[in-house]
Write a structure and sequence with these properties.
alpha/beta; Protocatechuate 4,5-dioxygenase, Chain B; 6-stranded mixed β-sheet; 8 strands
């Protein structure tokens, strides 16, 4: 089996795949990119490891339930979105391997058999695997949100790529809930341009240096007042070593005015 790529995917807003009637095509471009990703991956993956921007723990934690529950971690959405069931299986075996790889590399990681799928996971998995037949394991962010630690975690998890596991960082390339609308246009554009230069145009060593020092990027804190939706990128890049990046989704008017992107690391 060939080595699988890793990904940083912008996961959109709330439970959007379950709100198509209400949203009127607003997420069509993002959805199309996920459907294309599934087509490109074909039948190579045997499981997904999702590094979720919606789960933080004091030390790393990995979801280990065989049948994960659901986490409705959003507010103000239609009533039916609090009854969503995305019934994909978990994988206690993969969870144990994730825990072992991190712990053998000197990072604390606990097993959590009660954690369910949050919307950073099921909002992506629904378009990717609508039949909910792909096993999914979630990895939390470490709550200190240190870029180097998450890059290191990604490096330790890289062997999973040779065993049919797709490592996905789920976040958003722009995430400032207080600055949506017209005010998001310039900071999201500036930060996205920096991301493109950092991930695609920079050599591997420089790529890591720039990511570790991401707060120096143009509009960094305007784009990410808190970096929970950016840190999954660090794990995806860490697991990709020196492999090249490609932008697989880009939109200049996401949610009306936001520039948003998703990236692949490694060859298809």
């Amino acid at each position: 089996m060939s080595r699988l790529p890793t990904y940083f995917l912008s996961h959109g807003g709330g439970p959007w795949p379950y709100m198509k009637d209400e949203l009127g095509g607003r997420f069509d471009k993002l959805e199309a990119s996920l459907i294309e990703l599934r087509r490109e991956l074909g039948d190579r993956p045997r499981a997904v490891l999702m590094v979720s921007g919606h789960w933080e723990t004091p030390e790393f934690a990995v979801s280990s339930a065989a049948r994960p529950s659901m986490v409705y971690d959003y507010h103000g959405f239609p009533e039916h979105t609090y009854r969503i069931q995305y019934g994909a299986p978990g994988s206690p075996e993969l969870a144990a391997r994730v825990q072992a790889l991190l712990q053998d590399g000197g990072l604390v990681c606990r097993s959590d058999d009660s954690r369910g799928f949050d919307h950073g996971t099921f909002s992506l998995m629904k378009p990717l695997y609508p039949d909910a037949d792909m096993p999914v394991v979630q990895l939390s962010l470490k709550a200190d949100l240190d870029p180097q630690t998450h890059i290191r975690a990604g490096k330790l998890l890289a062997p999973l790529r040779d065993d049919g596991v797709v490592i996905v960082g789920s976040g958003l390339s722009y995430h400032n809930l207080r600055r949506f609308g017209a005010g998001a246009a310039e900071p999201s554009r500036a930060f996205d341009a920096w991301l493109q230069e950092t991930l695609i145009a920079s050599p591997p060593e420089k790529r890591l240096e720039r990511l570790i020092d991401w707060e120096s990027a143009p509009s960094a804190r305007a784009a990410h007042p808190r970096e929970d939706h950016l840190l999954p990128l660090m794990a995806a890049v860490g697991a990709a070593a020196e492999e090249p990046a490609a932008c697989i989704y880009h939109e200049d008017a996401f949610m009306g005015s936001i520039t948003a992107s998703s990236f692949r690391f490694g060859a298809m």
